[in-house]
Request: fold
Amino acid sequence: MKPSTEPLVTAIQANPPGPVRWLGQLLLYGLFGLFIGVFTQWPPYHPLGKDQALIKVSVARLGQPVGECRRLTDEELAELPPNMRDPVRCPRERSPLSMEVHVNGTRMLKRVAEPGGLSKDGAAAIYERLAVSAGEQRISVRFNDDVRPGARVYEHEASVKLAPGQVLVIDFDAEKGGIVLR
Reply:
C-alpha cells in the first residue's frame, strides 16, 4: 500500500468581510448599545421616597463568652495529656447579639443574631435598613452582647434631624463607649 501524499487538513477559505457584513455588524452593535443605554436610564429607580431618610443598623462583632472561665483542679489536670494541661478552662460558645431600635416611641427593629461557626464561637452580624420620614426623629437603641446574668445592656437615646435622602448609621464601637450614631 502506497502512502498518500494528500494533505490531511484542508484549509477552509473564508470570504473576506464585505461592506454588507460590516454594516450588519455595526447595526447589531448599535442596537445592543441602544438597548443597554435605555435600560440604564429607564425605568427610574428611587430607593427612598422624596421625603424619606434611611437608618442603617450595621453591627458585626464577637459576643461575650456564654459562661465564666473556671480553674481546673489538680486531679482534673492530672487526667489530661501533658500538652493540654491549661489550668483555666473557658467556654468557646459566644453570646448572641440582640438589638432593639425605637423611632419616636415605635419599635422599628427587634433582632437577635446568633454567632457563626460550628461551635457557635464566631462573630454575629446585624444589618438592617429602616426607611423613616425625614425631619426630627427621636431614636432609642438597646444593645446586648452578653447572656450572662447581670450583664451590661448598652442604651443610647438621641434626637436627630434627618434631611431627605440622608443615611444615618447605627453601629457599636466598644472603644467609643458603645452605640454610635453617625
About this structure: The mean pLDDT is 91. DSSP finds two helices and ten strands in the chain. Helices lie at 19-41, 74-79. The longest strand covers residues 52-61.
